[in-house]
Amino acid sequence: MEDDCQDWTLKETTTTDGWMIVEFSRLLDTQDNQDHSIKKDVNLWSPATRIIAAWGDSDDISYHGQKKARGSVRLFATHSNELSEMEAQIETLEDQSDGYFDFTEDNFTIPAVDTHYEDVCKEFDMLNLNLPEGQSMVTMIGVVPLIQDESAQFVHHFIVSLQKDCTEESALTKTMVYAWAPGDEGVRTLLFLFVMCVMIT
User: What phi, psi does 91 have (nearest 5°)?
Assistant: First the structure.
């Protein structure tokens, strides 16, 4: 769809050694309902800005095919540029948490089909947490996705949900707490969540 109001100003473009560099500007909040406002993302509990791009080799607008890119950029970054977004997330979470656990599915074989949905459910006592004596709940302050490089191309998205237990009845009342898609490198949250069961879809 064509944008009704052009709020972007092209400053300069260069193409050198296979790299196309485009410099442009716009207001952080254009007051245009076809633009997303650009949020101040200094604090790591704020998500980084998601970026997508597509390009072509002619002046005609058509489907870009594989000429596309996606990722996330922390536009107001204050951490060292030597750290990736995920490394900065992990460093912050390690400083501000009492511990962590990995939730992985290590014995799954990717089926040879176009689309497959896999449900994994683990109850609280299966997470092998070393909780202080008398404590039975966990406060979740952040999430960092763990995806192996060799399987990343096959993962379209996943969802983390909470539910009372792993029964079918509990699955009907589950609550989504995190959703991942390519380009997302984790989040630190201010929500305090009592973890009873985690399900990845």
Answer: -60, -45
